[in-house]
UniProtKB/TrEMBL annotation, chains A, B:
One term of GO molecular function: phosphate:acyl-[acyl carrier protein] acyltransferase activity
InterPro entries: FA_synthesis, Phospholipid_synth_PlsX-like
Annotated protein name in UniProt: Phosphate acyltransferase
Chemical reaction(s) catalysed: a fatty acyl-[ACP] + phosphate = an acyl phosphate + holo-[ACP]
A Pfam family the protein falls into: FA_synthesis
Biological classification of the source: Bacteria, Bacillati, Mycoplasmatota, Mollicutes, Entomoplasmatales
Entry's localization field: Cytoplasm
A Gene Ontology cellular-component term: cytoplasm
Organism: Mesoplasma corruscae
Broad class of enzyme this protein falls into: transferase
């Protein structure tokens, strides 16, 4: 059995949605025990609707929370918040991993203050899995926003940690890594990309293929794409936005007349398949890789689907003991 | 009558494709006279296949060219290249505007050396038009790669020039402008975004709405999106890449069985409509806004559709006398 601390307070959609996701998800993992951290009354009310076997969860009551509208300062101000408490439970090893959908800046700061970094790692990065055009293949993209400004050493650290994650959790034996850049030539980009190219090329632990343009992110050509948090965030949001708008446009066009609607109905499954494949809600969890604890961030507006995706990723990380494997490797990187 | 200098040498697809585009496009603009700059023999051969009224073009023969695989140094080394010559024709006012699909870095350097900047403008930016979810509405996005590193004054300059362009060419009376950033709050982003936010907010000429996330670029909510060249290039390529991959996936899914193929055929027009709307080949021209001349860059792998799109944009810019309007405004910005 392993325990995951689940901050049910932070999301825009409320406690009930978080509990519903948990009640559906917990059936899929026999070893999972959930520690719900948050307002006891709200949790209990939700549990009357979405039942969970009482042997498989506990409640850690808290009185405050830090949601999407919170700030980095809340980590200091709200010592009794669900986010601070779930981080403290992880630090005390009372749980094996944690999940929150609360304010990102507070979560990053709190993770650094409370958990600290893995020895040998200077900065942690947000690492989501990106769905790709290749069936069942995801690409790791990091950092997507934990650090606005990075140096080449940070990017090298991201690449090393992601390599271990890819090997251990995704079972890729020799993960291929690229650097996100505005062109493939090694002279492209700002000083950061040029220096990072050199650092990544010369490290024997990294299977580095060179630069990659943003238009290839969804292609599934590689296992790991390395970038600074500002660039990664920009690229990720562009991808999400254009996918969403394009699917909407197709839907609009196909429902613009009665006849089209009838015809489109017969192809509904096909559209659904593509839209599911690239739906970022199925990939809404991001590991804050580099802090000393398995700490996942779920999307602030997480719905049942998103929460379940994050729960799945968190269980995968725990079951594959990825933190210890990264820590063991960190000394030898 | 106005004259556009057309460097037919630079593209990956050869002279014939460029001439074919010209022969089809020229019928749509009565005032247009084209000056083909490039290898005389190749141009003449192509013209035997794609005929153009001899009163509507001339040939300016050159012996060298700078294609996509060229470098910035070629501007100095290849004085007789079609790119250098077309820039010199523009400088000498023998033509009213120019188009090339050759190497971007060489084109940017050449434009600065030969044409110089508009007085009051420190840096020129690449400004494509981005198709949006709103019918017939395009958004101007700049810079998308002319400058890797910008400061807030550069971004303010881009916003001012784009405002004039939007008013004069796209006929938007009070164009709405946003700053591309990783969040909407004014404290988001790196130092550049924070400083640019202040500069854009306090300038009375700019109708500034604040920050905008990359996921909204295609939404058509605004007229102008301002960014530095590195970020803009990253965002644009993410958009292009994800649109292309998503449309491919849908196609793959819809043709995965005979029955699906038959059903999908009946909806072909609908797909075509959406895929045309967001096809970046229909928006493949980017104005290098800020240099003292109307100088357009077409995609390196321009096909007939792309060349025609760039020709259209170039004619629109000339017919609306946008350069002089920007220059007149530049003093009063």
């Amino acid at each position: 059995m392993y325990k995951i601390g689940y901050d049910v307070m932070g999301s825009d959609n409320g406690v009930e949605v978080a509990i519903q996701a948990a009640s559906e998800f917990i059936k899929t993992r026999k070893e999972l025990f959930l520690v719900f951290v948050g307002n006891e009354e709200e949790i209990k009310t939700a549990l009357t609707k979405y039942k969970i076997d009482s042997n498989r969860f506990s409640i850690y009551p808290t009185t405050e929370f830090i949601d999407m509208h919170g700030s980095i300062m809340d980590i200091r101000r709200k010592r009794n918040s669900s986010m601070v408490k779930v981080l403290e439970l992880l630090k005390a090893k009372e749980i094996d991993a944690m999940i929150t959908a609360g304010n990102s800046a507070a979560f990053i700061a709190g993770s650094h203050f409370i958990l600290g970094e893995i020895e040998g790692i200077k900065r942690a990065g947000f690492m989501p899995t990106i769905p790709t055009a290749i069936k069942n293949k995801v690409t790791l993209l990091l950092d997507v926003g934990a650090n606005m400004e990075c140096d080449e050493e940070d990017l090298l650290g991201f690449a090393k940690m992601a390599t271990v994650y890819s090997q251990e959790v995704l079972k890729v034996s020799n993960p291929q890594t690229t650097l996100l850049n505005i062109g493939v030539e090694e002279t492209k980009g700002t000083l950061l990309q040029k220096e990072a190219f050199k650092a990544l090329s010369s490290d024997p632990f990294i299977n580095f293929l060179g630069n990659m343009e943003a238009r290839e992110i969804l292609s599934g050509q590689v296992d790991i794409i390395i970038t600074d948090g500002y660039t990664g965030n920009m690229a990720l949001k562009s991808l999400e936005g254009s996918s969403k708008i394009l699917m909407n446009e197709i839907k609009k066009e196909l429902t613009s007349s009665f006849i089209k609607k009838i015809k489109a109905l017969t192809l509904k499954k096909s559209f659904k398949a593509v839209s599911e494949k690239f739906d970022y809600k199925n990939h809404s969890g991001a590991l804050l890789i580099g802090v000393d604890g398995i700490a996942f961030k779920s999307h602030g507006s997480s719905d049942v689907k998103s929460w379940k995706a994050t729960l799945r990723m968190t269980c995968d990380a725990v079951e594959n003991d990825v933190l210890n494997k990264i820590k063991r490797k960190a000394g030898n990187f």
